[in-house]
Write a structure and sequence with these properties.
The protein has 86 residues and is α+β, with helices and mostly antiparallel strands. The protein has helices at 2-12, 23-31; strands at 37-42, 62-71, 77-85.
Length: 86
């Protein structure tokens, strides 16, 4: 992940780099302290069970500051957080 993001930053120059992926990709970026923001989309779907997407991450090392909440049609909610590294 370090190498991929380093290469993306070089290619992007002074533009932002966005990493799009599932939970495992987000976990890798968070654990490696490579992310400045976290964007999460929530869709209300009842499956009879749930997923604790970030359960294994040490919450003592990563703190989130909510910077934006957007609600869309069909129940979709977009959450945006700034990652405060300690």
């Amino acid at each position: 992940m370090d190498s991929a993001i380093s290469q993306a930053k070089v290619a992007a120059g002074d533009k932002d780099v966005n990493v799009i992926g599932a939970t495992s990709t987000a976990k890798q970026c968070l654990e490696a302290r490579l992310a400045d923001e976290l964007h999460v989309d929530i869709m209300p779907v009842f499956l009879g069970g749930g997923l604790r997407a970030f359960e294994e991450i040490d919450s003592g090392q990563i703190h989130l500051e909510r910077i934006k909440v957007m609600e869309f049609s069909r129940g979709r909610t977009h959450l945006r957080f700034r990652i405060i590294k300690r």
